[in-house]
Amino acid sequence: MIHYVNLAIKSIFVENILLAFFLGMCSYLACSKKVETAIGLGFAVVFVLTVCTPVCWVIKNFLLMKGALGWAGFANIDLSFLIFISFIAVIAAMTQITEMVVERFSPALYSALGIFLPLIAVNCAILGAALFMDQRNYTFPESVVFGFGSGVGWALAIISMSAIRKKLGYSNIPAPLRGLGITMLLTGLISVGFMCFAGIRL
Amino acid sequence: MSETLLSKKNRKIIKDGLWDANPITFQVLGICSSLAVTTQLKTSIVMALGLTFVTAMSNVVISLMRNFIPSKIRIIVQLTVVSALVISIDQILKAYVYDVSKQLSVFVGLIITNCIVMGRLEAFAMSNPPWKSFLDGLGNGLGYSCVLIILGIIREILGSGTLLGYHVIPQTWYAAGYVNNGMMVLAPGAFFLLGCIIWIQRSISGYSEVK
Question: In this predicted complex, what is the ipTM?
């Protein structure tokens, strides 16, 4: 059990998917202008990541890995070169399904998240987490925890950033630095803050 | 074709990607990989070549298919074309430069979700003929490459004192107390550096975001 808690802490703080691996920067920069938007997108990403990473694990281990097709009688087939295309298909399909399920069962949540759900398909944090899961050979429960942790880490980063940008509205920034430039510098500072966690031995 | 291959209009398409509408500093696309792979010049160059190839080729393919794609499923079609190209890049890298491919780790695969590729497909290739789309992809790829290579050079020299693996900071400096800036190879260094590059590029090109 403690192993999974450690993995969660590691993926939220120590190896934050945004601040240490730079994944999901695009939507992070584009959607951090308002706190409400950031919270909505943050939760949507947590949800999709928690669902997609384990699904990708299943696809990889029962269809794509060398010998994974053993159950169907094709023990010698190695389809691992298809990982990219099948993962992105899974992610695109999952976001679509998520969108439909949310729309059916929780119209309130749908109207809050609606516009962000399709955007998530091309958020590199999702595909990135799936590929890290593949590269680090996580087990199934580990992939659930890792997906959830990465999502929470990402949500944490975007929500704190949107709060800072709100405050920033009152500051006098040099014109060419406004917007993207100052956001990058601020992200650097947040990233320095998160690096303090790197000293934690888990 | 009514106009020549490199007419003034077509040259402008390339120039836009390189400077006026640089994908990283102006369009804010493709930031993720530009930060992650630039700790060394070598990985930056490989990544830049890979992305330029994928952007240009996928632009051509999508532009050829643009009249047959139903608009509802266009994202899936685009993703499929892009991932097919990325798979071939990945296999080539694994076959010929295995160590670089190991260093790039997941970021080769992440070209698929790189916003530059998708952004250019949506904004340009869906509504323009193949040759123009190719130039647009090339221009944007090269604009991305420039930023990547600049970042790679600065981060490798300041962070590890080397360039393409060769020591460029003389030993006498180290003897005199010079220390490599460890922050440059870590995440914050990348953020600060890119922030400054954006600042410089925007002061020169005179672009400013309206608040």
Answer: 0.79
